Design the sequence.
């Protein structure tokens, strides 16, 4: 930290009395190795959790030390909100904004001087008083395939704007017909609008791709889109909700005035990965949205030139009404563990009969380990096969009509994989119906439907999970029956497991008029397949949930706060601890960390030498294919790392698969640099970056997000990594500050240890890291925003 000695101010002896004059502190040029600016930049970037600034007299024991200062002296710090990547960048096309990120499929723009749009942002905490400008970079493609800047910078003539302000500017360059161009946007943050400026070093467009567009004044114009009234166009003053998730509405496409050679159209919703096509100059298309809320339907006409040339895009904004809620929902938070209460209330709010669940046998009750976190409860079933004990819960009548479409959503925590175990079912006296269960035969989750056809029993159970089932880890498991398509679909952690399985057309499922069963299923004339473990947050719906709605069920989002439910499943605090093991005495899941090699507990941290030391917990601790969050404080051993070569990677903490890394927090060294010391000598200091993700078998290639600044050594740093299974992305935080941008990640189910200080890569232990770690915690669930991250890690 830099320091500066000054002498200024005012006092009562001054004649004439002089006004107060502030003193500005800045870098001391004589102490370049104690750089104030760099220290504050590191703090702002999240490399340290706290920065303390102090002013004092040169000699606090001298009564004249503060003589020239008034007795109301204060330390005033001016700061600039850190710019964040802008949101919603794009090019104005027809009635809306479009951003096509594939060069091979650019947006077609009929205006040779198009408008560019973006919404500027600051990082969390910098919103108040933000002074921002948008910065657009536009490039055009040359005949040799290279790109040159067409216009830069492009900024709004209206000047500075506040956080979350939409900025729209017209291109100062006129693009010739056929020109392929691309646009990216940035946020720039200013202090009081003067020359003091901080520019964002990343953008949601420039780091993830560009918005590509092509000017073609002869291509089809933006078409006209109308509806049958199920959904209606939102206006500036009104946006009436209509329809609902899974409910289709007719949309009518017509050419723009003057377009006479239209052969068809392409259209898509935000939840669709690709364009859909329809032929005809004025077709009608039934479109079914998957989610409630506002949706934008993009439509572009195609002419009859060649194979069809797409034109400008019309963006039709409409609002989808909320779908019918759960017809039954059980939170299992009715009573404390050990209570004499033996029922769980149905808290669904839809119209209809409520179906409370009744517990059976002493092996069924409430557990304090539950999916929604602290103060929540779950349903515990101790069906011990050896003791011939059976535990379950059931309703007194059917909770759903199985001849109509229905869905079931559950959270499961399985403690035994040696037998079949059913989470939920609803069946007839002949055991036909549906069941959602774990199969020890295939070691997978299964959604099965059985019925009689021509006197023979038929089964549809091909819809099994793609990956194995982790023990003692919370997993979301769901099933959907679509009566229209006559298919069933299994969902694990909010994602469909392969294509829907067809029931066929010759038979017809009968109504399952039995009670809803939690923890058992009927088979061979009686009930069996009793559950062992916990079940929580069970819900049934009298309709087929869409993929997106099932993902929302798995996300457990609080509608009031917008935060997600997280459950602490591991916490290891070495403060004051000694010995060769470190117990989790906080979460309730009671997993113990074992130290190996020469790893030690020094009363403050777990010390690992980077040679053969490790701290390991028998795992998996979390289901890697579901959302999770991991955090720890880490202090790298700079001296030990100085001898490592560029390309070295060491794992802070992570979980393994059978043959490699599932995920981890990593230090990736890129080299060393020489730093001057107080005695005038130079010291080799390792340089590298934090990463969160998976290291490939080659030991060098990452699928990961990275820190934006180099990793600090010999100082404690708070690292947090999160995987969001609902959108398939990973995020990295230093303290509560996001680094990089959420990045697509393909989850791999881990079935092995959770380790600190080493990693399992290419079927072998290695990647040892010299470090000290403390306050290691892991949750089921991913945070919804930076504020929730801060709340989880403790500020």
Sequence:
């Amino acid at each position: 930290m830099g320091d500066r000695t000054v002498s200024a101010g005012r006092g009562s002896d001054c004649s004439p009395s002089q006004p107060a004059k502030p003193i500005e502190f800045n870098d001391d040029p004589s102490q370049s190795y104690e750089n104030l600016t760099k220290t504050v930049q590191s703090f702002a970037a999240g490399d340290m959790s706290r920065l303390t600034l102090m002013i004092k007299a040169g000699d606090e024991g001298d009564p004249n030390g503060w003589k020239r200062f008034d007795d109301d002296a204060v330390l005033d710090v001016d700061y600039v909100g850190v710019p964040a990547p802008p949101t919603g960048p794009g090019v104005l096309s027809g009635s809306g904004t479009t951003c096509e990120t594939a060069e091979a499929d650019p947006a077609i723009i009929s205006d040779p001087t198009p408008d560019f749009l973006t919404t500027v942002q600051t990082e969390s905490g910098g919103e108040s008083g933000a002074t921002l400008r948008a910065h657009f970079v536009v490039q055009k493609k040359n005949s040799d395939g290279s790109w040159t800047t067409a216009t830069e910078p492009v900024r709004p003539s209206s000047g500075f704007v506040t956080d979350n302000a939409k900025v729209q500017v017209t291109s100062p360059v006129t693009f010739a017909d056929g020109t392929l161009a691309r646009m990216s946007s940035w946020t720039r943050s200013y202090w009081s609008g003067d020359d003091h400026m901080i520019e964002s070093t990343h953008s949601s467009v420039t780091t993830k791709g560009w918005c590509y567009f092509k000017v073609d004044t002869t291509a089809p114009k933006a078409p006209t889109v109308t509806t049958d009234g199920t959904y209606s166009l939102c206006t500036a003053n009104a946006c009436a909700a209509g329809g609902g998730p899974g409910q289709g509405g007719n949309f009518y496409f017509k050419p723009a005035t003057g377009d006479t050679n239209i052969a068809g159209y392409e259209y898509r919703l935000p939840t669709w990965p690709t364009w859909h096509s329809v032929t005809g100059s004025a077709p009608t298309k039934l479109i079914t949205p998957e989610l409630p809320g506002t949706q934008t339907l993009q439509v572009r006409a195609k002419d009859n030139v060649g194979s069809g040339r797409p034109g400008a895009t019309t963006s039709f904004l409409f609002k989808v009404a909320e779908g019918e809620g759960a017809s039954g929902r059980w939170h299992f938070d009715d009573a404390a563990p050990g209570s004499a209460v033996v029922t769980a209330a149905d808290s669904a709010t839809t119209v209809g009969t409520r179906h409370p669940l009744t517990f059976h046998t002493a092996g069924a009750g409430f557990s304090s380990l539950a999916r929604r976190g602290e103060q929540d409860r779950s349903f515990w079933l101790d069906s011990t096969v050896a003791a011939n004990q059976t535990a379950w819960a059931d309703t007194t009548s059917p909770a759903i009509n199985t001849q109509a479409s229905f869905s079931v959503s559950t959270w499961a925590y399985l403690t035994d994989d040696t037998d079949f175990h059913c989470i939920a079912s609803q069946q007839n006296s002949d055991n036909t119906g549906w069941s959602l269960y774990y199969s020890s035969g295939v070691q997978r989750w299964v959604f099965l439907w059985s019925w009689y056809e021509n006197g023979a029993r038929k089964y549809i159970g091909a819809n099994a999970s793609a990956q194995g089932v982790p023990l003692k880890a919370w997993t979301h498991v769901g099933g959907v029956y679509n009566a229209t398509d006559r298919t069933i679909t299994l969902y694990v952690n909010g994602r469909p497991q392969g294509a829907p399985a067809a029931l066929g057309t010759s038979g017809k499922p009968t109504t399952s008029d039995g009670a809803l069963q939690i923890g058992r299923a009927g088979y061979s004339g009686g009930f069996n397949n009793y559950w062992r473990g916990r079940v929580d947050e069970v819900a049934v719906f009298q309709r087929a949930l869409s993929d997106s709605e099932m993902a929302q069920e798995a996300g457990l989002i609080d509608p009031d706060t917008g935060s997600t439910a997280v459950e602490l499943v591991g916490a290891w605090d070495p403060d004051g601890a000694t010995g060769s093991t470190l117990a989790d005495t906080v979460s309730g899941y009671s997993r113990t960390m074992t130290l190996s090699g020469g790893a030690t507990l020094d009363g403050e941290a777990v010390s690992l030498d980077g040679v053969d030391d490790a701290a390991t917990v028998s795992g998996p601790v979390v289901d890697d294919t579901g959302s999770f969050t991991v955090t720890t404080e880490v202090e790298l051993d700079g001296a030990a790392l100085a001898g490592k070569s560029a390309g070295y990677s060491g794992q802070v903490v992570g979980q393994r698969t059978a043959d490699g890394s599932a995920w981890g927090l990593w230090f990736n060294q890129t080299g060393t640099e020489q730093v001057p010391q107080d005695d005038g000598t130079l010291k080799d200091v390792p340089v590298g970056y934090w990463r969160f993700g998976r290291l490939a078998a080659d030991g060098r290639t990452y699928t990961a997000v990275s820190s934006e600044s180099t990793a600090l050594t010999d100082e404690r740093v708070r690292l947090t990594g999160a995987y969001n299974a609902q959108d398939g992305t990973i995020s990295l935080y230093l303290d509560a500050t996001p680094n990089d941008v959420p990045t697509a990640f393909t989850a791999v189910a881990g079935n092995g240890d959770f380790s600190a200080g080493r990693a399992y890569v290419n079927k072998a232990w290695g990647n040892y890291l010299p470090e000290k770690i403390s306050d290691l915690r892991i949750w089921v669930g991913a945070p919804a925003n930076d504020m929730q991250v801060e709340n989880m890690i403790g500020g």
User: Anything to note?
Assistant: The first strand starts at residue 83 and ends at 93. Residues 193-207 have pLDDT under 50 and may be disordered.
